[in-house]
Structure formats: C-alpha cells, structure tokens
Write a structure and sequence with these properties.
Elements: H1 3-8, H2 18-24, E1 28-33, E2 38-40, E3 48-54, E4 57-62, E5 68-74, E6 79-80, H3 82-86, E7 94-97, E8 101-107, H4 108-117, H5 119-145
Antiparallel strand pairs: 1-8, 2-7, 3-6, 3-8, 4-5, 4-7
Helix pairs in contact: 4-5
Length: 151
C-alpha cells in the first residue's frame, strides 16, 4: 500500500484534498514495533510526530517519587508527540507499546517546513492538532475533578 492510500484512511487528514495529501506523502515513514517498545520516551527530545495505524500503547508519566503512572491508552488513529510539535521541549511522558504496532512517522522539522510553505494546509493541520489537544485537556480535567475534594 502506498503512502497516499494510507493517508486517505487517517482521520487527521480527512479534510485534506488529494493534492494536499500528495504534499504530505513524501514525508511519511512507516514505523513498526513490538509490545514493550517505546515510541516516545519521557525526557528525551522528540524529533517526530506519530499516528498509530494499528496496535495499542500506554501513555505514562514518572511521578516525583520515581514511580510511573499510566495516564491513558492510545490506539488506532491516535496522534502522538503533538505537544512537542508545538513546543520544542523534551517529551513530557512516555508512550510504550502494549501490542505490536504500525505507525506513520513524520519528522517534525520537515513537517513544519511543509506547513510553513503551504499556509492553507498548515491552517488545516494546526486546527486538527489543536482539536486533539483540546479533547485531551478536557479528558484530563474530567479525570482530575474526580480526585479533588468536594466543597
């Protein structure tokens, strides 16, 4: 299957035209791994963003006492590494596969360069990324409120 065919199936790119998908296709690298592999490691520089095509992974964060806690489970069609895409900082959490996986990998610098040189495409992608982040914040707030004491 060619990159263009794969991109057509990814919900993040559902609003894009075939011409826009054709601009993105050369940036795609297929990443595969097995259960236990880290897709992203907390504290390390993240040079790519990923979209899971298959498999599942756990998003984990290390607490102040050194213990790792699971924040979320991610699976098919989920975007990974989007926080560092906007703010070039080390990963704030780890993403570890819990099953064999396939993912689309996009080098952040190359992706930024494409979006900067094609503003209408950039607007569409940045809107999608912001929706993903907004949904994740909303989910975290709902979880957090369960741990807060009642007034």
């Amino acid at each position: 299957m060619q990159a263009l065919d794969i991109l057509e199936e990814v919900s993040l790119f559902a609003d894009l035209t075939m011409d826009e998908l054709a601009l993105i296709a050369p940036l795609v690298v297929m990443k595969e791994g097995k259960a236990g592999d880290f897709i992203i490691q907390e504290g390390e520089c993240v040079e790519s963003v990923y979209i899971l095509l298959s498999g599942n992974a756990t998003v984990m964060k290390t607490r102040g006492d050194g213990k790792k806690v699971s924040l979320d489970q991610v699976g098919k069609d989920d975007l990974l590494g989007e926080v560092t895409f906007f703010k070039n900082t080390p990963a704030s959490a780890s993403v570890q596969a819990i099953a064999p996986f396939k993912a689309l990998e996009f080098n952040q610098k190359d992706f930024h360069r494409l979006l900067d040189t094609h503003p209408p495409l950039g607007l569409k992608i940045y809107k999608k990324f912001s929706r993903v982040l907004s949904m994740r914040i909303k989910k975290r707030l709902a979880q957090l409120v369960e741990y807060l004491p009642a007034e």
